[in-house]
């Protein structure tokens, strides 16, 4: 099984979790587990299972046959006072549904190989993934690549983006910028995943080497687009925050961060100036010293979501660029809110709480695309502008 290094030490921290997965998540129940639950006779638990586990009117898939109804506050009704799962406590781990047993892990197969990844909406997975330079290393990197005859243009572009993202000589935002230009150059017509000829693979390799050199040499300034970027990113952060519940940390993080950026500013221009100063004086020194943190977020995102390997390319790029822009914006704000400076725990909190809403609420991704398309329809260059630093 191919898996990033950080997963070898992952284990759920249970009741010590800052933001347990037993709240505000949709928990689908597979058919076999549903039948087991309906047969439970344990006093109290059997009644609660009958009451809270409801068969879906139209089951969507074998794994989504029924669903747990959350309490009005958004918590799982089976979370006990010690913040532990009462189903697991009383019936054992074997009684958990596939959704609960697997989270935050996800497995998939491609080209005869098996892969394992983790969702960073889990605070412990985020902490492990962001806190070590080699957390996203694989025991055998060659296993990440398709066999030569299985290589497609999509695979070659995906691999090129991953390779450039791993290059610590380049700031990670430049790697996302690279993702924009290389996908526009080679995947703009959404090619099917059929084997590519060696000339095409050769040109992708040559283009990657050439563009990487250009990115190393060039500086990019956001210039008079800074206000537009700031408005879009704050708008998306606020809109995602409004989807949070009492159990999410994200709304509080957004408020603390944006309050700091806006403090005392009379208008958006004033807030933008403060944002640029915080970026340069408070955020950048810490981020430069811990450049692997956001880089590992991007690597995990590319890996887990198999970004650009299937489906329309532009929405995937818009989501990657905007998510990165929003995370960085929030960290810049927090850097000003922390007298002692940022810590990697701030990175894990921002990434996991944002992922909890952005990855699990199906309305977020289309809203991100719609927000960008409303300004410049189907524009890669607008999405690229979401990652250029404000200063
Ligand atoms: S979010 Fe992660 S660490 Fe927290 S309870 Fe769930 S699996 Fe465990």
Characterize the structure shown.
With 391 residues, this protein is mostly helical. Among the domains are: 22-102, no CATH class; 223-384, no CATH class. 52% of the residues lie in helices and 5% in strands. The chain is built from 16 helices and 5 strands. The protein has helices spanning 31-38, 45-52, 86-91, 98-102, 123-130, 153-166, 172-186, 198-217, 226-241, 250-262, 268-289, 292-304, 313-337, 344-358, 364-375, 380-384, and strands at residues 28-29, 53-55, 66-68, 105-110, 113-118. It has a 3-stranded antiparallel sheet. It has a two-stranded antiparallel sheet with strand order 4-5. The protein is globular, with a radius of gyration of 22 Å. The two termini are 42 Å apart. The mean pLDDT is 92. Iron/sulfur cluster binds next to helix 5.
Estimated share of beta-strand residues = 5-15%
Strand order of the largest sheet: 1-3-2
Which structural category do the helix and sheet elements fall into? mainly alpha
Individual helix count: 16
Overall shape: it is globular
- How large is the radius of gyration? 22 Å
C-alpha end-to-end distance: 42 Å
